[in-house]
């Protein structure tokens, strides 16, 4: 995330991975991706028992929150569209802000009982105690991160995208192989870096930068030919930040790029957050929020 998976003006780059465009992506495919994460029970009695047990444990008064009676939610700063609007996670605007409040509602917390705190992206999945109940920050679920923290079931699945100048010879690439001689810029610690290395396999090592701003700056001074970010961020960058650019194509990150709510390892809230997301998936809320806040992938070619 950005790693991004997971997103910085960061150039409005990753949280950008944050635009105010309206989503028109295919509802069926997204529904399948979101609902598929919910799983199924092998038998009715087991499901009933499990549901009853979880429901009992997830009563608001029993939740082991960081601060009693308050749900503390973390994200990075700055916080950009389409995930947050006006750099104010607490206003409920933007995809991830809206998802966070929807989870809170399912857990029994009113908006006034939700407290936001800042947690840098790269430190969110570091081992150790957390000063929040959960973090929502375009954080990709990876096996390495999952060794140190808990992840919820995915609330969104986002492919990677390649941004190049409109007049670049790479703007008309038909495959990932057509891009292998490009000089890539990516942010350290993101799934985008793994995607470039493992999927594009460039002929030269990608340039790795500490922040999203640094990646964008390198592109602006022509130090790199292309940058790779998640697709939602790419829509924002090409429409609002990087002029005379185009999304050359989209492609899947290794193992897919599923974003999950991050919690401390063995958090007592993990089961309850999963239950809330399952309900939000089943009632169509996640699809509706993604349609409202995130741009469509329909017009971007898929590269293999």
Question: Can you tag this structure with a few keywords?
Answer:
304 residues, alpha/beta, D-Maltodextrin-Binding Protein, domain 2, 2 domains, 5-stranded mixed beta sheet, disordered N terminus
Task: Summarize it.
Helices cover 33% and strands 17% of the residues. The chain contains 11 helices and 10 strands.
Shape: elongated
Order of helices and strands: HHHEHEHEHEEEHEHEHEEHH
Low-confidence stretches: 1-49
Count of helices? 11
Overall tally of structural domains: 2
**Beta-sheet strand percentage?**
15-25%
Reading side by side through the largest sheet, how are the strands ordered?
7-6-8-5-9
- Based on secondary structure, the structural category is alpha/beta
Oligomer: single chain
Radius of gyration: 19 Å
CATH superfamily of the largest domain: Periplasmic binding protein-like II
Q: State mean pLDDT (0 to 100 scale).
A: 84
- Biggest sheet, in brief? 5 strands, mixed
Measured distance between first and last alpha carbons = 21 Å
- Looking at the structure, the CATH topology of the largest domain is D-Maltodextrin-Binding Protein, domain 2
Helix content: 25-40%
Q: What is the CATH architecture term of the largest domain? A: 3-Layer(aba) Sandwich
Strands, total number: 10
